[in-house]
Amino acid sequence: MPLPLTQISDLATLPFDQIIDVRSPAEFAEDHIPDAINLPAMSNEERARVGTIYVQEDPFKARKIGAAIVARNVATHLEGPLSEKEGSYKPLVYCWRGGQRSGSVAIILKQIGWRADTIEGGYQAYRRLVSKALYEGVMPCPIVVIDGGTGTAKTRLLDHLIEQGAQTLDLEAMAEHRGSLFGPMSESQPSQKAFESRLAMGIAKLQPERPVYVEAESSKIGRLIIPPVLWQAMIAAPNLRLTAPLEARVKHLISAYPDMLSDGTKLATVLNMLTRYHGHEKVAQWKALANAQDFKPLAQALIETHYDPRYARISRAHAPDAEEIALPDLSDETLAVCAAKLISSE
Fold this sequence. Notes:
The chain is an alpha/beta fold. About 55% of the residues lie in helices and about 10% in strands.
């Protein structure tokens, strides 16, 4: 019998060796259960072809052609990614609705002798649980927001908190974006659904009796929206505002954005986006510094002219009572001590 999912955390406790998503690569790319692998029963083109036959010609013909396609593709997977699996292998298989694709694949795997099973309702059932957790539920534990101006090493502090056993949600890593115009970590961010999958799984692993630390963000990270369950909790949460000497912040920024410093075209493109805030003359000065690879005065100018004034306006409006943590520098030693103090006060 297909296994029902009642909550996201079920996925972490189910006794399976691997989760296999047999949907098409396009479906998988948009979103999938975290840590699942994609062994498609049909390619994007094959799925479109079978669907067209089902609607425009004959459902029986579509099922017959689809069965042949699935059999060929499963054979390829058995000779490839699954070829070294032992007899005790226990995979959990799912498709869009938990129907024919996952059922067909699971039958073949069971006939081999593997203890395969499927998810009742497939991806759609999983997606409903994600939506319920992020749009209808409540945060399972209290939140502490790590705030501070650009360059105050908030993300690095989160890393030290993780190393020392604290609970964190690294929203920027999940969104693949550092939360500013200079923030993209790759060519494109994940889909909103994929971001929500990562977030829901992260929340499901939290221990309710302990706080979770998150970095201060706006309601959007790049083009991705923070779902309301987390966003409302962040708004109501206590804020810890990091401060540090300007020189330390400049040094941190230069080390934190190697992709920008090594790609002059990318850096110039982002600086051009600041023209509407500071005018052509000021941006031209910044681009000249970038072209000369004079990054220290460029970083300092961006902090003083662009980021700090904007941060001051936002922080006064959203976190007027934030508790200030003044750091003498942004070394790993200092951040580790700060993390230890935060954890000891939980």
